[in-house]
């Protein structure tokens, strides 16, 4: 027989009834405090004439009511510049002052008479630049320099990047041997390396002509063969920098990324073009700019291997051309003007390249 509740009595608490909270009420309300009225259905939830209660938002950590916190650079003031002062002084002494003297001499009439003190130096304005730009040989040398430097940069980057990828594929002993050979080529002085390459390609005693069966063929007689020979020597002594730098960047790439690309069926060229090259773009920017600067101002290899610029100056580049104008012809002002033009060209190429990289969203 079940006990039925009496009429008007409250039903006993079932298993789904909520126990009273510690605050004193079943819904967490404190004893003696009336609960807020429930909002009406279909309306805005507020009584007429009543304003909504203000909602408080938690303050974000690290901010004060008076304004944002200053950056460490703004708080440090001149402290960072004090740390950079010794380096800036050295750079100013080794770079800024020589560039200033170079630009100053390019605006003067400065020949052997002025160097010996027999005549005073006179201001020429842009007269030296007008003479230089009016010389057809200057434009021929400039075009040859741009083409030669571009070929050297592309070849150096191709060889260096290919060998950097190869270093990641071989075992420890071949990797060490290749690294030591590359660093030996990099450490060889330019004069020594140029002399060795001349001996290798010598028409009478060189082993290259004997191996290829070319007889007494002279590599430095023709214009293009001489440029090709110098290009090989420049690449030989320049690719180790690219190889070591790119290899360090590849080792920093997570192995899971390369493994995932291999599992997806990507070839080595596809992995380099779609995975490694985008991730190594900041490193490639650095080695490209360095290669452009080095190869554009090549002097020793051209001067030693072609005998000062080749037959009738057919292998002249801007650096050798400036040397001939300044020291062979004693026209120091024209040589300084060529140096200023080279400086402006390198600055323009570097700034344009960096701007293109920044447009692609890369942080440098």
From TrEMBL:
Residues 142-353 form the ABC transmembrane type-1 domain. This is Sugar ABC transporter permease. It is a multi-pass membrane protein. Pfam families: BPD_transp_1. The chain crosses the membrane at residues 81-100, 138-166, 178-201, 221-250, 271-294, 300-322, 334-354. InterPro entries: MetI-like (IPR000515), MetI-like_sf (IPR035906), UgpAE/MalFG_permease (IPR050809). It is found in: Cell membrane. Residues 1-72 are annotated as: Disordered. Keywords: Cell membrane, Membrane, Transmembrane, Transmembrane helix, Transport. Residues 8-18 have a biased composition (Pro residues). Signal peptide: none annotated. Belongs to the binding-protein-dependent transport system permease family.
């Amino acid at each position: 027989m079940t006990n039925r509740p009496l009429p008007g009595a409250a039903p006993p608490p079932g298993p789904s009834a909520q126990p009273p909270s510690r605050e004193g009420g079943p819904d967490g309300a404190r004893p003696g405090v009336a609960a807020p009225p429930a909002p009406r259905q279909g309306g805005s939830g507020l009584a007429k004439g009543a304003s909504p209660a203000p909602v408080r938002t938690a303050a974000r950590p690290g901010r004060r009511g008076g304004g944002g916190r200053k950056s460490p650079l703004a708080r440090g003031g001149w402290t960072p510049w004090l740390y950079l002062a010794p380096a800036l002084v050295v750079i100013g002494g080794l770079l800024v002052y020589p560039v200033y003297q170079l630009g100053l001499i390019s605006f003067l009439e400065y020949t052997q008479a002025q160097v010996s003190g027999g005549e005073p130096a006179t201001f020429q304005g842009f007269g030296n630049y007008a003479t230089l730009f009016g010389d057809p040989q200057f434009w021929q040398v400039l075009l040859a320099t741009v083409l030669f430097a571009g070929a050297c940069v592309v070849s150096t980057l191709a060889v260096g990047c290919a060998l950097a990828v190869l270093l990641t594929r071989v075992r420890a002993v071949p990797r060490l041997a290749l690294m030591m050979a590359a660093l030996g080529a990099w450490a060889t002085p330019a004069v020594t390396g140029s002399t060795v390459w001349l001996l290798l390609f010598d028409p009478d005693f060189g082993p290259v002509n004997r191996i290829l069966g070319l007889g007494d063929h002279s590599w430095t007689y023709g214009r293009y063969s001489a440029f090709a020979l110098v290009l090989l020597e420049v690449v030989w002594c320049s690719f180790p920098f690219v190889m070591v730098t790119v290899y360090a960047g590849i080792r920093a790439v997570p192995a899971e990324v390369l493994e995932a690309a291999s599992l997806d069926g990507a070839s080595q060229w596809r992995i380099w073009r779609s995975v490694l090259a985008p991730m190594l773009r900041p490193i490639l920017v650095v080695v490209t700019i360095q290669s452009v600067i080095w190869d554009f101002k090549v002097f020793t290899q051209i001067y030693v291997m072609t005998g000062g610029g080749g037959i009738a100056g057919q292998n002249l580049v801007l650096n050798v051309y400036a040397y001939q104008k300044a020291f062979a012809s004693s026209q120091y002002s024209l040589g300084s003007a060529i140096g200023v033009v080279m400086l402006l060209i390198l600055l323009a190429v570097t700034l344009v390249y960096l701007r293109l990289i920044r447009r692609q969203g890369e942080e440098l």
